[in-house]
Structure formats: C-alpha cells, structure tokens
Amino acid sequence: MHEKCQKYKYMNSYSPYKGKSGLKRILNATGYSISGFKAAYKNEAAFRQIVLINIILIPVSFFLDVSRSEHVLLIIVCLFAMIVELFNSAIEAVVDRVSLEKHQLSKNAKDMGSAAQFVALSIIAITWLIILLG
C-alpha cells in the first residue's frame, strides 16, 4: 500500500488535499473560510439577510437587561442561523453543480436545506421572545 494511502487506511478514499498539518493547515483553512464567507455574501441574498439580522440583533443584545448566559444565548442563536445558511447555500451550490436539470432528489435536497434554515430562524424568534418576555 502506498505510504500516503496507509495514512488514510481508515478513510473511504485517499485525498491529496489532506497533506497539510500544523500552522500551514490552519492558515490554509482560514483562507478557505474567508473565501467561503465572501462567496456566500456575493452570491446568496439569504446569507446577506442573515448578516443584516446579525448586525442588528447582536449589538441590540448588549443593551438588554438580561443575564450573561441569556446574552450569550441570544448571540449564539443568531450565529447558528448564519451557520445553517452557509450549509444551505453549500447544498444548493453542489446540487446546481451536479445538474441544473429538474429532479425530485435535487428539489428535496434544496427544500430540506430551506427547512433547516426555517427552523434556525424560528429558534431565533422563539429564543428572543422567551428571553425578552420572560
């Protein structure tokens, strides 16, 4: 077995892109993350809307008379919606990359990503309402 393949013997397949480690890997990963944020912001209106929601709600949370743990929770649920939208956008991009042809599985994948984002936004609304009205 090839030396590199031996390293990945417990994985399904060998990837030549997985050779970096240490600081170089962290720097590369940071660059990929920044590229992902830029691509999402440039190409996805829904992501820009989530960014706007976060730009409004996170600073507002600092002016609320809530406990420290409630404050953290208000911020976490906002950032969670951003994470879900990044996954949703990634799913949509992969589905479109595979084929622009209409197919039920493609529709299902996109609809499920949308449903996940709906749940994330519902979590924001419910959490903020419970904390503010509690």
Automatic annotation (TrEMBL):
The keyword Membrane applies. Mn(2+), Zn(2+), Cd(2+) and Co(2+) support activity to lesser extents. It is found in: Cell inner membrane. Its cofactor is Mg(2+). One of its GO terms (biological process) is phosphatidic acid biosynthetic process. GO terms for cellular component: plasma membrane. It comes from the Bacteria. It is a multi-pass membrane protein. Its EC number is 2.7.1.107. The active site is at residue 85. Catalyzes the ATP-dependent phosphorylation of sn-l,2-diacylglycerol (DAG) to phosphatidic acid. Involved in the recycling of diacylglycerol produced as a by-product during membrane-derived oligosaccharide (MDO) biosynthesis. Belongs to the bacterial diacylglycerol kinase family. This is Diacylglycerol kinase. The lineage of its organism: Bacteria, Pseudomonadati, Pseudomonadota, Gammaproteobacteria, Moraxellales. The gene is dgkA.
